[in-house]
């Protein structure tokens, strides 16, 4: 096969970094430098930790735990409310920079992209220098750091960007696998969750290198044939999946989360879905869209996908409606099996603002819509006053400008 070249670009502690850029513009502390979390309600100290800074991690604070528990671990913890509409702007701004380097970019999540740099040698003869250029440009123009993984395929690029953080470029070429990847604990192999790692442990497999050398027949004692082949290939750095040139939001809006610890109870699944609902709804609102169809996807430990979707009577852009619908879909279709991936998708997008009037109008809908709108406008005003206060062009200003320019581009293309 042709030699490929893939970059994986991953924002370092994305939500914390993006909130830090937002707060810095308002004269707040740099959330990245202090023990801080994003998520929940800063006043009541309720809710769930959506993200944590590196200093907060040192106190043993983990994503997904209650804010009250995090505060017990670190009494002077700084708590920032999440602002998904702002995160969407940051995400779009960073992806717009990445997109300049190749025609083939895959948006993998709100803070990760894959770039297919294969055959770009004429324009960018030195891939490592190009990786540094992208990383430094994002920091200079937008004020937050990324890691870049440079490799011959998506799996290895993703593994490489996960090496030492933040603000680093790492390579992981085939010949580097024994030295850089094989000594790592098997749980660090992408898609190897806690329960898979435990199963491997029962075969005395602790490192990725040991997994790579284990015969398939042995792996089939603990995994399905498909699962065994998957882990055998991954441990050996084999991944033929293409970088899909997917324009974000071409058909709809979706988010997928591959979890580190398999999801085994409804509450943890719903926490992931809630975060996704916030993100996808904010992305859709940023484009002035409303969806008529909501779907959930999940993948079990044998890599079998299951999807379930529903068509709404009327289109919506309200986070709460989207979340509650997704919750019902999960309740109907999930039967308690451990999950490694959960996804939420919004499709059948209505962009002209036309809304059918239903005879069965949800009485709370207008209230909820008003809530979303007022939150958005408070955020908008908050951001604008911050921009006015800053004497020089700051990074949050640049993010807003770049976001507006992207929106303009989109309108022209449509
Ligand atoms: Mg990240």
UniProtKB/TrEMBL annotation:
Tree of life domain: Bacteria
Active site: 112
Cited function: Poorly processive, error-prone DNA polymerase involved in untargeted mutagenesis. Copies undamaged DNA at stalled replication forks, which arise in vivo from mismatched or misaligned primer ends. These misaligned primers can be extended by PolIV. Exhibits no 3'-5' exonuclease (proofreading) activity. May be involved in translesional synthesis, in conjunction with the beta clamp from PolIII.
GO molecular-function terms, A-Z: damaged DNA binding; DNA-directed DNA polymerase activity; magnesium ion binding
Subunit structure: Monomer.
Site (Substrate discrimination) residue list: 15
GO biological process, one term: SOS response
Keywords assigned: Cytoplasm, DNA damage, DNA repair, DNA replication, DNA-binding, DNA-directed DNA polymerase, Magnesium, Metal-binding, Mutator protein, Nucleotidyltransferase, Transferase
Organism classification: Bacteria, Bacillati, Bacillota, Clostridia, Lachnospirales
SUPFAM superfamilies: DNA/RNA polymerases, Lesion bypass DNA polymerase (Y-family), little finger domain
EC number: 2.7.7.7
Co-factor binding comment: Binds 2 magnesium ions per subunit.
Residues binding Mg(2+): 10, 111
Protein name: DNA polymerase IV
Compartments (UniProt record): Cytoplasm
């Amino acid at each position: 096969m042709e030699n490929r070249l893939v970059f994986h670009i991953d924002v370092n502690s994305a939500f914390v970094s993006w909130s830090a850029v937002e707060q810095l513009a308002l004269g707040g502390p740099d959330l990245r430098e202090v023990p801080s979390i994003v998520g929940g309600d800063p006043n009541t100290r309720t809710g769930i930790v959506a993200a944590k800074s590196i200093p907060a991690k040192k106190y043993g604070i983990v994503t997904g735990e209650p804010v009250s528990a995090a505060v017990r671990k670190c009494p002077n913890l700084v708590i920032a409310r999440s602002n998904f509409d702002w995160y969407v702007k940051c995400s779009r701004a960073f992806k717009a920079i990445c997109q300049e380097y190749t025609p083939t970019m895959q948006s993998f999540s709100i803070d990760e992209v894959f770039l297919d740099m294969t055959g770009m040698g004429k324009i960018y003869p030195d891939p490592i220098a190009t990786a540094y250029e992208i990383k430094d440009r994002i920091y200079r123009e937008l004020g937050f750091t990324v890691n870049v993984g440079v490799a011959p395929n998506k799996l290895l690029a993703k593994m490489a960007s996960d090496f030492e953080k933040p603000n680093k470029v790492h390579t992981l070429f085939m010949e580097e696998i024994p030295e850089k990847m094989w000594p790592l604990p098997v749980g660090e192999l992408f898609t190897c969750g806690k329960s898979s790692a435990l199963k491997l442990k029962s075969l005395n497999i602790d490192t990725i290198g040991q997994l790579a050398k284990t015969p398939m027949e042995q792996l089939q004692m603990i995994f399905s044939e498909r699962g065994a082949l998957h882990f055998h290939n991954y441990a050996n750095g084999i991944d033929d999946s293409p970088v899909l040139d997917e324009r974000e939001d071409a058909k709809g809006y979706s988010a997928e989360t591959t979890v580190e610890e398999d999801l085994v109870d409804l509450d943890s699944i719903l926490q992931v879905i809630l975060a996704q609902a916030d993100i996808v709804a904010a992305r859709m609102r940023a484009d002035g869209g409303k969806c008529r169809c909501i779907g959930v996807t999940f993948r079990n430990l044998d890599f079998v996908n299951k999807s379930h979707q529903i068509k709404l009577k009327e289109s919506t852009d309200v986070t709460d409606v989207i979340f509650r619908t997704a919750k019902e879909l999960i309740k109907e279709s999930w039967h308690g099996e451990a999950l490694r991936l959960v996804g939420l998708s919004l499709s059948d997008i209505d962009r002209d603002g036309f809304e059918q009037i239903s005879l069965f109008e949800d009485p709370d809908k207008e209230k909820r819509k008003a809530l979303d709108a007022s939150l958005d406008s408070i955020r908008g005003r908050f951001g604008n006053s911050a921009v006015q206060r800053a004497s020089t062009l700051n990074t949050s200003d640049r993010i807003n400008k770049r976001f507006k320019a992207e929106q303009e581009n989109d309108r022209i293309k449509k």
